[in-house]
């Protein structure tokens, strides 16, 4: 019986010990979860397999480090005072994320980019505080407590920091006092376009970055030594190809002194394929259609007139459709030269039609006058004619009977042999009415409408081909002989 109570006693004691042990473990675990240690062993921190920092024994947490650095009461940090009395050096580099649009009408472009700035602030050194990490990634709200170079794009039309879903600002402080900031910005910048060679033009758009508050004596802005500008991905635009991005720097004089300016220059080359298919090729067809009138003959004057006028109207509408989306400039563009030259060719074909129409009318009047002369002399018993020899200049008198008119004259010749009768009388008439300036300046009388049409059908296309050779050779080959990578000023 005694052994039974002894066993029960030991069992009770064991249960109490087990309960006490469990309570102790829970308390220790709770303390480790909610009470972050401020000091640990420096040799016990490291990284897990995912690269995350493991806080263990002996290091100072980031928030404690920051509180000691920027607390004015503890460290005397003043964000309005330059970190170095001799001036600050700020290194800048840019990551181009995307170029979204370029507008000729408003002469600007939109770009998304990252701006990286790095400077050294000795007051922010924390290697003596036994930190857990050699650098700290902090919330951007801390920037309001730190000295910054207050940089901005001075020539931007619009700029804002992305807010998706929070303010896109990255802040990192290194244990040696170096500060790295990164801003993801959307910008609308000016692009003063030169459209003399439109649509085979090359455009240069620039953004100027500088410190707004500090001149060169206080803040010296420089580009990073390696890759000051990087392009993160493909920058595809429907109308332009990004040829190059340049990084330049210069000192600019203001009334308050000299400022460092860092300039990003984007060089774009226009893709003129759309203008070839929508502008040039239809205009080519309109001009070629206007040449069909040369083959319609001199009798189809109404049809030729309608064809030429319609071609001129179509060319005018085509020209207006292309330039409707372009800014109004006072100089001549490349497409203006081509379109105006095309309209000149069409207008010249209308002038040729007017000349042909006039000569055809004169020729018709001559033929009608000759018929009237033949009819009037057929009723006469005697008329003049070149007999049989066309080289003879001496007219011969041929008697004809009024009442015996037939196809045979008394000398046995046929009236068909005197078909040049009208020309004989016409030559006599010209001798009496030739103007004085015709006698002083020889004028050919053998320019007939058919010959002018034949010559125009050859000369117009030939001159047009020569014009296109010079036009395309100059404008397309221009970029090959010009340094398009020279920065714009």
Automatic annotation (TrEMBL):
Q: Does the keyword Glycoprotein apply?
A: no
Protein location: Cell membrane; Membrane
Instruction: Please list the coiled coil stretches.
Output: none
Q: Which GO terms describe its molecular function?
A: extracellular ligand-gated monoatomic ion channel activity; transmembrane signaling receptor activity
Q: Where are the transmembrane segments?
A: 272-295, 307-326, 338-359, 455-474
PROSITE patterns from the UniProt entry: NEUROTR_ION_CHANNEL (PS00236)
Q: Is Cell membrane included in the keywords of this UniProt record?
A: yes
Q: Can you tell which superkingdom this protein's organism belongs to?
A: Eukaryota
Outline the extent of the Neurotransmitter-gated ion-channel ligand-binding domain. Answer: 74-272
Gene3D superfamilies assigned to the protein according to its UniProt record, in alphabetical order: Neurotransmitter-gated ion-channel ligand-binding domain, Neurotransmitter-gated ion-channel transmembrane domain
One GO CC term of this entry? plasma membrane
Per UniProt, residues of the Neurotransmitter-gated ion-channel transmembrane domain are: 280-371
The cross-references to CDD domains, in alphabetical order and at most eight, read: LGIC_ECD_GABAAR (cd18990), LGIC_TM_anion (cd19049)
Q: Which InterPro entries match?
A: GABAA/Glycine_rcpt (IPR006028), Neur_chan_lig-bd (IPR006202), Neur_chan_lig-bd_sf (IPR036734), Neur_channel (IPR006201), Neuro-gated_channel_TM_sf (IPR036719), Neuro_actylchol_rec (IPR038050), Neurotrans-gated_channel_TM (IPR006029), Neurotransmitter_ion_chnl_CS (IPR018000)
Key words, A-Z: Cell membrane, Ion channel, Ion transport, Membrane, Signal, Transmembrane, Transmembrane helix, Transport
* Topological relation to the membrane, as annotated: Multi-pass membrane protein
Question: Can you tell me which family this protein belongs to?
Answer: Belongs to the ligand-gated ion channel (TC 1.A.9) family.
Q: What is this protein called in UniProt?
A: Cation transporter family protein
């Amino acid at each position: 019986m005694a052994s039974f109570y002894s066993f029960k006693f030991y069992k009770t004691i064991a249960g109490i010990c087990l309960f006490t042990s469990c309570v102790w473990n829970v308390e220790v675990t709770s303390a480790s979860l909610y009470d972050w240690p401020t000091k640990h062993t420096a040799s016990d921190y490291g990284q897990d397999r995912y690269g995350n920092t493991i806080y263990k024994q002996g290091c100072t947490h980031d928030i404690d480090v920051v509180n000691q650095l920027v607390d004015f009461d503890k460290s005397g940090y003043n964000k309005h005072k330059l970190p170095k009395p001799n001036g600050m050096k700020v290194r800048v580099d840019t990551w181009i994320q995307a170029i979204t649009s370029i507008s000729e009408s408003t002469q600007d472009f939109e770009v998304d980019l990252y701006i990286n700035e790095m400077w050294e602030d000795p007051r922010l050194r924390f290697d003596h505080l036994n930190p857990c990490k050699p650098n700290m990634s902090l919330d951007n709200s801390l920037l309001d407590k730190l000295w910054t170079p207050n940089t901005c794009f001075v020539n931007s039309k619009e700029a804002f920091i992305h807010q998706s879903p929070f303010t896109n600002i990255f802040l990192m402080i290194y244990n040696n006092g170096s500060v790295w900031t990164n801003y993801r910005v959307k910008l609308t910048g000016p692009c003063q376009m030169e459209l003399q060679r439109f649509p085979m033009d090359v455009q240069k758009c620039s953004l100027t970055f500088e410190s707004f508050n500090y001149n060169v004596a206080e803040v010296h802005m420089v580009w990073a030594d390696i890759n000051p500008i990087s392009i993160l991905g493909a920058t595809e635009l429907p109308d332009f190809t990004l040829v190059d991005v340049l990084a330049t720097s210069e000192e600019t004089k203001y009334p308050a002194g000299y400022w460092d300016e860092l300039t990003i220059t984007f060089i774009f080359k226009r893709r003129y394929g759309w203008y070839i298919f929508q502008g040039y090729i239809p205009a080519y067809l309109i001009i070629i259609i206007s040449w069909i009138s040369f083959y319609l003959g001199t009798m189809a004057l109404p049809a030729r007139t309608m064809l030429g006028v319609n071609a001129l109207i179509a060319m005018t509408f085509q020209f207006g459709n292309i330039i409707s989306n372009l800014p109004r400039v006072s100089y001549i563009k490349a497409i203006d030269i081509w379109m105006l030259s095309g309209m000149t060719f069409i207008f010249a074909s209308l002038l040729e039609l007017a000349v042909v129409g006039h000569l055809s009318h004169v020729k018709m009047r001559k033929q009608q006058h000759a018929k009237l002369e033949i009819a009037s002399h057929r009723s006469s018993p005697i008329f003049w004619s070149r007999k049989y020899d066309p080289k003879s200049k001496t007219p011969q008198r041929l008697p004809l009977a009024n009442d015996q008119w037939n196809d045979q004259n008394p000398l046995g010749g046929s009236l068909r042999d005197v078909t040049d009768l009208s020309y004989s009388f016409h030559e006599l008439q010209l001798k009496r009415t030739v103007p004085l300036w015709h006698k002083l300046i020889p004028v050919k009388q053998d320019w007939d409408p058919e010959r002018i049409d034949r010559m125009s059908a050859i000369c117009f296309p030939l001159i047009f081909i020569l014009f296109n050779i010079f036009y395309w050779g100059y404008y397309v080959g221009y970029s090959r002989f010009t340094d398009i990578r020279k920065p714009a000023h």
